Amino acid sequence: MPWTILMGNRPLRNRTMDQSRFLPQRDFGQLYHVLRAAGYRVVGAVEEQGALTYRELESVDRMPTGLVDHQAPGRYRLERQDHHRRFDWVGTAQGLKPWLFSAEQPLWVAREVEGGLRFEEVRETPPPTAVIGVRACDLAALALQDRHFLEGDYPDPHYRARRDQLLLVAVNCHRSADTCFCVSTGDGPQVRTGADLVLDELDQGYLISAGSGRGAALLAQLPTRPVRGWHKRRAKALRGRARVQQRALPSRDLRAPLYAAREDMHHWQPVADRCLTCGNCAAVCPSCFCHRVDEEAPLDGSLSRAVRRWDTCFNDEHSYLVGHVVRKSAEHKYRQWLTHKLASWHDQYDRSGCTGCGRCITWCPVGIDIVEEAQRLCDEVGEAERNHD
Amino acid sequence: MTDPWTPYCAQVVDRVAETPDVVTLSLRFADPDVQSRYRFACGQFNMLYLYGLGEVPISIMDYQDGCLQHTIRAVGRVSRGLTQLQPGASIGLRGPYGNSWPLEEARGRDLLFITAGLGCAPVIAAIRRAIAERDSYRRLVIMQGVKHREDMLWQAQYDRWREVPDCQVLLAASEEKQAPFAWSLGMVTTLIDKACFDPDSATVMMCGPEPMMRASIRALEQKGVAAENCYFSLERNMQCALGLCGHCQMGAPFICKNGPIFRVSDVREWFLLEGY
């Protein structure tokens, strides 16, 4: 087999589909065992508190079968169906973000010592981690987080350490939730890049292809068979089904309308009237990167620790500045979130900050819909311009 | 150390109480290697860490006698604690961060420094550099506004700058009833009318409260100074200084990595909007 010589993490361009193999349904457990044998802890989506969440799997049996998620603004429900497919669900409550950019991350420790302060870096050695079930929108969001955390002047060592240990087994979506809009952002539903292995799930088994040398080496160890023509036709049809989505952002680059809308607070009042400024949207957003740095000193005074925690632009403290808060009202906060995600992100990172996963819609307690709001703002700004002409 | 988050230990070498709530600390790294590697440019800032309380961004006022100088106002928990430190105390220090004043690009031009309150601190090193290289620039105008006469920092230094050839020093107090000798009454913007400069070949460097900078931008526009030739130092909630934490975004720019010094024309739309 030529696979074994393709070591390393180099992406294999344009070759993935041609070299796909078929893994029978009953041999799916082999994927888990091959990953374990290669030294990975294996992470997959499990049911927890009524939602799917990525957790470390102590056995392949922990992965649920026959589960389908129903998502709508402010609503997430799991339904158990009468089949054994493992990946008929579309979205986990969180994407990959918590596995790389931890919700809570100790940064360093300071100790008072003779003659001054001693600072100790926090160095971690995260275990090699393979995540099974990753979707295209979350891979795109991972690329956005990579850009933010790794490609600036000061790459974040904590993110780096986890990222270097990550192996991604992606799955092509074969259906979309009502909240999905990845087709309009250009990020899904089909996996294009960024995964080590890519699966298409059929009732009889999996089309499986490698997206990297590492993935190819793992694939070579699986008891796969050649792919039949009908496997490919069936997978293609299922992928096509997932492209049918109810929601679409008006454009991939919304800078012109949103920068026009930022000038007039009347545009932001209708959404601010409903927004609770809870920050759930930012917490579940797979690309949101804001974090605050807290200082924690145990009462015995032995040391003091800097810890970073997720923060959102919906908190007053986020925009604290010498004794006052720059963004106090819900209008200002929602405007910050939306104009950053869909507009100024382009100025910062050359694309939109949204990959169309729809989590902010699902997990908003009052069901605010980012697509609907973006469309409304575009319409209002367009209307204002027409009146002006 | 390669971890950009972790500070180095530094010692307070000297402390000068400038006013009741403003203190200048002279600092030196505990490790001589760190000290000898350290370089900064006028306008950059450091993160200062107070044990048990946390870090704050403070602009570098200057470097003298082998010490970094930071002028700090007691505003929040950390800055209040820093102003209470005495010589011999240890703190954490990392930096420098951000960009610097465009002193090179401004060679051969008139230089206007417009500052108010503690906004003078991030500009002092640039003024000193311009005066040290007096021949590189044409006219110099140094403007500083304060509320009360006793809020004025480094009066003696400003008086010495009056002696520099072709250097105009203009001071204003906004809440005095009578103008002190050689002072004006009013906001620093009133000084712009008194400044002698060529609007077509002037470079402006500003730092102070945002309302003061907004008013100054308007006053300068009326004088015919293009926003492309005006620079200001901005501040937001910088918690990491590494471009990572996201708190210092003012619309598209991150103040810590794209600034803190900006050409006014590059960010004016964000700057003029309340809530960014």
UniProtKB/TrEMBL annotation, chain B:
Pfam families (alphabetical): DHODB_Fe-S_bind, NAD_binding_1
- Name the chain's protein: Ni/Fe hydrogenase subunit gamma
- Which amino acid positions bind [2Fe-2S] cluster, per UniProt? 240, 245, 248, 256
Leader sequence segment: none
Write the gene name. Answer: hydG-2
Q: How is the cofactor bound?
A: Binds 1 [2Fe-2S] cluster per subunit.
Q: Per the database record, which ranges form the FAD-binding FR-type domain?
A: 5-103
Keyword vocabulary terms for this entry: 2Fe-2S, Iron, Iron-sulfur, Metal-binding
Molecular-function annotations in GO? 2 iron, 2 sulfur cluster binding; flavin adenine dinucleotide binding; metal ion binding; oxidoreductase activity
Q: Which Gene3D superfamilies match?
A: Nucleotide-binding domain of ferredoxin-NADP reductase (FNR) module, Translation factors
